[in-house]
Write a structure and sequence with these properties.
The protein has 279 residues and is mostly helical. It has a single domain, classed as MetI-like fold (Orthogonal Bundle), CATH 1.10.3720.10. Helices cover 77% and strands 0% of the residues. Helix 2 crosses helix 11, helix 3 packs antiparallel against helix 8 and helix 6 packs across helix 8. The longest helix is centred in the first third of the chain and has 34 residues. It is globular, with a radius of gyration of 23 Å. The relative contact order is 0.13. The C terminus is likely disordered.
């Protein structure tokens, strides 16, 4: 009877989730299909529009800026997020209640749950005020990078914080018993143990940066057009064209690939059970 109930439940869950997956991925699949539309004068589907992208200077320039922005902000965001997650985990108070106990979660989750539109407008106002007061922080890649770091670091901190929460606190006491100072304990114990979380956090931050439009749009300046902004501008000018479908397909493939890598690194946490609390 229990096996029959389990099979019935699996069937129900499959029928319920299948329409959701169709709604999620069917539009992406259509974009990929339309990206192989025949070129002018061609008879069948092909890679004409992908070849056009490789010879489009505006697209290549936007790609270069997106990669520069993603790599630079992800490196800094990962460093800050790792330190944030480590600090919140190691120095949070387990004896306090109320707001004090929930403060680490509030610090991490508030930037994540905040709407991107509000975040982008806030950054725009802040950088405008700073530019008027100091003459610095003119709209461009610098302001975009700072804005990206501000929303990347909490995501990395969340991944690192979750990894740190699963560690046995006695490990850090044992390192002190072995005469390791705080720096040595962090470099030779903490970093190797949370390395999968750090790498996964970096890949997550990189994906968020490549995919971001709203915050980039509000903090961008002349000559700092990224791929999402370029796509938005191209669609506004000429509508959805096959070359835009090809560019969107490449971005989708990149994000999916990075997401799979991030998933693989974070899954490594389950392969080290001896480092978890209570083991």
């Amino acid at each position: 009877m229990s096996q029959h109930v389990a099979r019935s439940m699996r069937r129900t869950l499959l029928l319920t989730s299948l329409p959701v997956y169709v709604l999620l991925y069917a539009p992406l699949a259509l974009i990929a299909v339309f990206s192989f539309a025949p070129g002018p004068g061609a008879a069948g589907a092909g890679f004409h529009w992908y070849d056009e992208l490789l010879h489009a200077p505006d697209v290549l320039a936007a790609l270069r800026r997106s990669l520069e922005l993603a790599f630079g902000s992800s490196i800094l965001g990962t460093a800050l997020g790792t330190l944030m997650g480590f600090g919140l985990s190691r120095f949070r108070s387990r004896s306090r209640g109320g707001v004090a106990a929930a403060l680490p979660a509030l610090i991490i989750y508030t930037p994540i749950i905040m709407p991107s539109l509000v975040f982008g407008i806030s950054d725009l106002i802040f950088f405008n005020l700073m530019h008027k007061a100091t003459g610095l922080f003119a709209a461009g890649l610098l302001t975009m990078g700072i804005a990206h770091v501000t929303f990347q670091a909490p995501y990395v901190a969340l991944v690192v914080f979750a990894r740190m929460a699963g560690l046995d606190p006695n490990l850090f006491e044992a390192s002190q018993d072995l005469y390791a100072d705080a720096r040595q304990s962090f470099l030779h114990l903490t970093v190797p143990v949370i390395r999968p979380a750090i790498i996964g956090g970096f890949l997550l931050a990189f994906t968020l940066s490549i995919d971001d439009f709203t915050i980039s749009y509000f903090t961008a300046g002349p000559g700092s057009t990224t791929l999402p902004i370029y796509i938005y501008s191209a669609v506004a000018r000429k509508g959805i064209a096959p070359d835009i479908n090809a560019l969107a397909t490449l971005m989708i493939a990149t994000v999916i690939g990075i997401g799979l890598l991030q998933y693989g690194f974070t899954r490594q946490r389950e392969r080290h059970p001896v480092l978890r609390t209570g083991d």
